[in-house]
Amino acid sequence: MRRADPLILSSQPRVLQLFKPASRLALLTNHRQELALKGRLPSHVRESLRFVSTTITPSSKKASENDKVSPYSPPTTGLLSYLPSSVVPYAELIRLDKPVGTYYLFLPCLFSTLLAAPLASPIAPPVTVVSTAAIFFFGALIMRGAGCTINDLWDRNLDKNVARTRLRPLARGALTPKQAVPYLGLQMFSGLALLLQLPAACFWYAVPSLPLVAAYPLAKRVTNYPQFVLGLTFSWGAIVGFPALGIDLLSNTPALISAACLYSSCVAWTVVYDMIYAYQDIRDDAKAGIKSIALAQEANAKMFLSAVGTLQVGLLAAAGVAVGAGPAYFVGAVGGAASTLGYMIWKVNLSDVVDCWAWFRKGAWFTGGAISTGLAAEYMVRYLSEENEQEKSHP
Predict the structure, then answer these.
(1) Residue-number span of the structural domain to which 167 is assigned
(2) Transmembrane region positions (predicted)?
(3) Cystine design at 375: which of 42, 54, 114, 194 (Cβ 3.0–4.6 Å)?
């Protein structure tokens, strides 16, 4: 009598233990049809082999990789944890929990306000400077949120493919475009209401920046240097501070040259800090087809950052020369920018996502703080000097 085949006598679990994964697949592809035709396999064994064929596939491997990605969990700490759950997606959309972007949008406004203050006639008093800066800050908070909303509307399908952005509200489906668009309208209206608190000329200086806000997300699809477009957008406040204090740039050539140099300097600064920021997503951007300066300059990143940083400092110095700034400006603002930028570029580890994010955040405080301090010192020196002269002339 022919000896019974052990495979036929095995139970279903035994079949799965009998073959290693590679052997299971080989058995399936080479012998399944033949064995089934010969009737050598009972039904429960054939089902086991069908289980092997449907689980050991590339798609299952991909699924297992996706399972490793952490799912969304509501915030349990910070400002967002105190908000109603229905409001959280809207707060996340405008990055309310990540204010560093607001700081970067506000700082050029502060720079221009402080640089323009001594040029006003009479010199702008501290109360005016502070109140103007406050309007700019809240405007930056609102318009940065609007920019994030526009960006996420454009990128909601791309964001799903990038680890850092895949859980953004529109990308994960917590909000729909039909919800985000009216929210964007509310933000734009609020920004307009704040803008109207400034002199009327500011409206005409500010409005041309709006097309740039919409263009940045598109730039990531057509150029390797979208950070330059972002710089044109984020630096616009370097111009608006002058008309905010009553200075007509079109009739004041030194102020116009200074504003142009300050604006260009801020554009260069944006390229530096946002290039560091972009290194967080460099691998995902490459896979998703998103263009980035980090990808374009990957081979010589530190050299490129150093060149753009040098350009920023040079333009910042030129802005001071144009209006006859004094030592406080060149030591504090220009010297501070040079030292903090140089240190950041030297220390940042572009291959470390955590380090890139840390230095991106520090840049607002280090470089932005140094420039602001130098400008504030220059303003106070001039303001106190004029006060002393007035006291002498009117004893």
Answers:
(1) 84-390
(2) 103-120, 127-146, 184-207, 228-250, 256-279, 300-322, 328-346
(3) 114
